[in-house]
Amino acid sequence: MNAVRSDAERDEGEPQIRLLIDNDTGIDDALALAFLCACDHVKIEALTSTPGNVDVEQVAANNRALLALCGRPEVPVLIGAREPLQISLVTTPETHGTQGVGYATLPDSESESSTDVGAVDYWIEAARANPRELTVLLSAPLTNFALALREEPRLPWLLRKVVIMGGAFYYQGNTTPTAEWNTHVDPHAAKEVFAAYSAASEQGLDSSKLPIVCSLDTTERFEMQPEFLTKLSIEAGCDEPEIVQASDPEGTLSKSSSPLVRYLSDALRFYFEFHRKYDQGYIAHVHDYFAAGVAAGTLEYQTRLATVDVETESQLLFGTTVADFRGLWGKPANAQVVAANDPEAGFAELVQRLGALARKLNENS
């Protein structure tokens, strides 16, 4: 098992993390994006949209609106693929709402920085122009990344770090008994991505460059309680504490004095209600926040090298990820699978950073 690693202890003068984000916003995607906007050391180069929780046009609209709310309207929002590689798109309104962000609503906002370049071309051009400088956060189905690897097989060498939220290894799935949502939406893309990294390993790619995979095994440890929103509202300096309770009528909307707290509360309330309907309690698994913290270098974690593959033939196990940690397949490792993390520290950081952002936005309004 690799030692605990974090970029959080970097020197004061070290350059900011330059980040490319690919998401399918998505309640936990929205929380992750707000967190990254709250990190002064993170420079979001672009945000690319992938179909998943909702269709890609809605994903892009959600991203533009949230970037504007968080004071980052200059970040370009790009669209790549509009469908999975080989199968029809299945969205999840029951999990994230018809618009993808629960009960939260914001007007669409055109990006100040626009480009006609598609997501895949943008990634490739950016990686070639900035070798070993860009970190990629993939919190959506891997469709766009698979297409980019097809066109530029040198991406594993050109990128600084790749973080994937997806998969479930010997752990109950959240879409089928064995499959996780992002992988199940486009398992062929995930299979291509891990195959590309297997080929890169055979060509001598250093194991530190393998994608860091945040699977359900560790992301579901980030189990948010409604009290999080109370702590956030206090940290944000709101006029009144935000109180969200299981006894509230479904669809109760926030009246917080902070637009950011109000947005996140309305989104997360829907997520709490969804988890309760599936007998998990009035909680929310905020998978993508953990992956964002790994990409930003603020959260500690441990990894194990593994060879990962994805089932795309079996009807019973379609979309299931399998990790060989013991080298039984005799193939080179193609992933660093997160094996341990610290949710308590992660939630404390999330409150502090989002609270600071909310105060800043209120002061500037």
Note the topology.
Layout (H helix, E strand, L loop, with lengths): L16 E7 L3 H11 L4 E8 L6 H14 L7 E3 L13 H4 L22 H11 L4 E5 L4 H9 L3 H4 L2 E5 L15 H5 L1 H16 L9 E3 L1 H4 L3 E2 L2 H9 L23 H19 L6 E2 L1 H10 L4 E10 L10 E4 L10 E7 L1 H22 L1
Parallel strand pairs: 1-2, 1-4, 2-3, 4-5, 5-6, 6-11
Antiparallel strand pairs: 7-8, 9-10, 9-11
Helix pairs in contact: 1-2, 1-11, 1-12, 4-5, 5-8, 10-13
Key traits:
365 residues
Question: Can you characterise this structure?
Answer:
There is one protein chain. 38% of the residues lie in helices and 15% in strands. By secondary structure, the chain is α/β, with parallel strands linked by helices. The longest helix is centred in the last third of the chain and has 22 residues, at 343-364.
Per DSSP E runs of 2 or more residues, the count of β-strands stands at 11
Main beta sheet, described? 9 strands, mixed
* Residues in helix, %: 25-40%
- Unreliable segments of 5+ consecutive residues: 3-11
The arrangement of helices and strands along the chain is EHEHEHHEHHEHHEHEHHEHEEEH
- Rg estimate, integer Å: 19 Å
Mean pLDDT score: 93
Terminal-residue CA separation: 47 Å
Strand order of the largest sheet: 3-2-1-4-5-6-11-9-10
Structural class: alpha/beta
* Overall form: globular
- Provide the β-strand percentage band: 15-25%
Instruction: State the assembly state of the protein chains.
Output: single chain
Count of helical stretches: 13
Give a quick precis of the structure.
By secondary structure, this protein is of the alpha/beta class. The protein has helices at residues 27-37, 56-69, 93-96, 119-129, 143-151, 155-158, 181-185, 187-202, 216-219, 227-235, 259-277, 287-296, 343-364, and strands at 17-23, 42-49, 77-79, 134-138, 161-165, 212-214, 223-224, 284-285, 301-310, 321-324, 335-341. Helix 10 (227-235) crosses helix 13.
